[in-house]
Amino acid sequence: MPKDDESKGSFLFLIVTGLGILIGYKKLTSLGSTSAQAAEVSKGLSFMELKLFDSWPAALAHKGRLYSTSVRSCRDTVSVRVSRLFCSCRDSSVRAALSSASNNAHTSSNGALSSSGQGVTESCLYHTSGTNGINSNACSRDLRVFDGYDDEYGGFVVDPDKLPANQSAFALMLRSSLSHWKMKGKKGIWLKLPLQLSELVPVAVKEGFRYHHAEINFVMLTYWLPEGPCMLPGNASHQVGVGGLVINDKGEVLVVQERYCSPACVGLWKLPTGFIAESEEIFEGVVREVKEETGIDAEFIEIIGFRHAHNVAFNKSDLFFICMLRPLSTQIMIDDVEIQAAKWMPVVEFVEHQLIQGDKMFKKVIDICIARLRKQYCGLSAHQSTSKFDSKESTLYYHVIDSQDDCEACSG
């Protein structure tokens, strides 16, 4: 037979054999196939595959020019799941990635199949020899891992907006992610679970995560991967409170009586106080609290001093900043929810109040405030500053000395 006719015949044989493989694969994967039928079809497919690739190199020889002597890749497979079936290449090593989740399979530059999306593709090395078929050295899967970003300390922060709501899917991805992070040498893992995904908390705890802190709409869990003691920082150890000392031109101080308080503080006239909100400056927080409780607009002058106490609430420490403010209005409008009463009280009367005289620390605070009014003491004023370490603007509180008389510099 002429060489051209032989080539045509070989290519025709390839086409027919390929169609047979496709038909057999459909039979193999059909729902009606029994295990015995599947085994028989699989056996026939293996034989057909070997025949196909046995004749492939010869078929590619045309006019004395050999285009390929061995098959290096299986590019045009039907799908990722059948790559094992169609990569039975004799005397060659074939890399293929088997995907169990993605429908967006693509072929990489080296002929290996992988799946698109956030995941870790593990490739297998298949080695075939003679007519013995495939000897798989490793199993491969496309493992899904959590989205997120690396922190600056070698850890990883999981993106809470891309977590699966299903517990089983979450558990599988969590295990895959932990294996991936360990392989990558990650250290601390931060997992934020929103309130709507609270059913995932016991799943994470079962895998080794621990509580770190909680807010009104989420809980934060952590996992320390390296051997040895955990080096992650603990939860916030302090709460921050402020008190506003507002004195007008008449020598009167703004005082309030709280609606809800301990029995020891019933009837006590005190300064407007409250807690600093998240991402709020001290000088902003004290102005806000005075406004909310009394309706008085005020301007921050300086921090007179601060108190540091421990085991105040839920075993947390407490920082309480006493701030001096200048009133910008005079008409009092109390917050009926929190405040029982509010008024302007002469400083002398306020100092002589029985509860204040019986509290050494609070009396000391009042003495400092009076010394400030007499220009015998200066507090800490707020100054905006930027650090090169984080490139963020922050507030630095310090005492400014502009003359020999320190108090004159603070008189305002």
UniProtKB/TrEMBL annotation:
Any matching Pfam family: NUDIX
Nudix hydrolase domain residues: 237-367
CDD domains assigned: NUDIX_ASFGF2_Nudt6 (cd04670)
GO-annotated molecular function: ADP-ribose diphosphatase activity; metal ion binding; NAD binding; NADH pyrophosphatase activity
Hydrolase among keywords: yes
Entry keyword set: Hydrolase, Metal-binding
Keyword Metal-binding: yes
Protein family according to the UniProt entry: Belongs to the Nudix hydrolase family.
Name of this protein: Nudix hydrolase 8-like
Annotated source species: Rhodamnia argentea
